[in-house]
Amino acid sequence: MEKPLWLNPHFFPLLLAILFFLLQPSLSASDYVRQPPRKVVVTQHHRSKSDPQQVHTSLAGKDYMRISWITDDKDVPSKVEYGTVSGQYNAMAVGDHTSYHYFFYSSGKIHHVNIGPLEPSTTYYYRCGGHGPEFSFKTPPPTLPIEFVVLGDLGQTEWTASTLSHVDSKDYDVFISPGDLSYADTQQLLWDSFGRLVEPYASRRPWMVTEGNHEMEIFPIIYPHGFKAYNARWLMPYQESGSTSNLYYSFDVAGSHVIMLGSYTDFDDDSVQYKWLQSDLAKVDRKKTPWVIVVLHAPWYNTNLAHKGEGESMRKAMEDLLYKARVDVVFAGHVHAYERFTRIYDNKADPCGPVYITIGDGGNREGLALMFENPASELSVYREPSFGHGRLRVVDESRAHWSWHRNNDSDSFVADEAWLQSLTTTKSCWLYPGNTDDSMVKKDEL
């Protein structure tokens, strides 16, 4: 005689599991939890030693772009041929090259060539070093609107590939990363693999990056200063912006001034970076450049249990500068989750402070930061531990639309979005005690 169902040893565990799921509230967007990252993707080099690999582009001052690439052949010249018609190169520029050693690793020849002056909103076709395939990129628009993709802690896993495919599914003008690129962590071959992985994207739109902790690669006595691979491979326009370090710089594009700060170099009020930031902010004319955006790695505001307080010393040193300059938005990475805050100054809601956004969820191999503080802070508007990317579309002098796109396997889903108002339009924010800086916009100028 067959036993009753309830006498089956698996019956009660199954019943409990069913009841558990039936009694659970339905998941809201903020409860959605992405699975851990998939395996690391190692991207091989299939071209000849003379052909370019790891090609990426970056903005290099007004009307110029920098083309960077690597060749195994050390005799390939550092030159770029380019034009506005495919296969027809009516201009050429020559640049510099470098290389580096890290323990037993020797890099290929790393080329950096500035080309221009270029026309805005124009597609250019180019060839690197006289060898290999043709590439193309589109220059950013001269005026608003403009769209930025913002994406931190990228890594090179299968989730990274998913994120990049979602980014590529919709056009944009400039890519911004708050650091932690390759997750090579001293394994220099992973730098090469990462460069090949992102080449199809970074060769077509300017990639503007700053460093994270995974770029440091410090080894006591032998490599005490760190960032050897990062500085050699990802040359940014620091000299063009008056900086003395590739770890922090700024650039202007279509009504927006973007400042890329370094969380892992000196930042106190006696530091070179602090004085540079002070000078850089003072030069911004908000009537011509209504939007100011800051990007750094370790977040100043964070309700996730991961990396709690790691950006606090930098916040205490530099927050006043950003507040007085009426910076509109601050992007950070480091925490492997997404979180958007309200406007904040000195740990309090403030209509004249920046909007703080953490977007360290590109797809890295370390997994997601799943644990947030409870109850949630009233300063935190939306938070979710999932992989994804963000888009900031600056529509005009006063409005920008922010959206965060969660990776949903084969597609992406807009899980959070908000309209941002430029602080140049908030007249009360330009009347505060101690504002004697003539570079600041006054109430009667708005």
Automatic annotation (TrEMBL):
Family as reported in the entry's similarity comment: Belongs to the metallophosphoesterase superfamily. Purple acid phosphatase family.
Please report the name of this protein according to its UniProt entry. Answer: Purple acid phosphatase
Q: Does the keyword Iron apply?
A: yes
- Residue ranges occupied by any Calcineurin-like phosphoesterase domain in the UniProt entry: 148-338
Q: What class of enzyme is it?
A: hydrolase
Q: Which reaction does it catalyse?
A: a phosphate monoester + H2O = an alcohol + phosphate
Query: Which E.C. number(s) belong to this protein?
Result: 3.1.3.2
Needed cofactors: Zn(2+); Fe cation
**Phylogenetic lineage:** Eukaryota, Viridiplantae, Streptophyta, Embryophyta, Tracheophyta
Q: Which UniProt keywords apply?
A: Glycoprotein, Hydrolase, Iron, Signal, Zinc
Signal peptide range in chain numbering: 1-28
Give the Pfam families listed for this entry.
Answer: Metallophos (PF00149), Metallophos_C (PF14008), Pur_ac_phosph_N (PF16656)
Answer yes or no on keyword Iron. yes
Output one GO MF annotation.
metal ion binding
Originating species: Hibiscus trionum
| SUPFAM superfamilies (UniProt xref) | Metallo-dependent phosphatases, Purple acid phosphatase, N-terminal domain
Purple acid phosphatase N-terminal domain sequence ranges:
52-139
| Domain Purple acid phosphatase C-terminal per the UniProt entry, residue ranges | 353-410
Q: Which residues form a coiled coil?
A: none
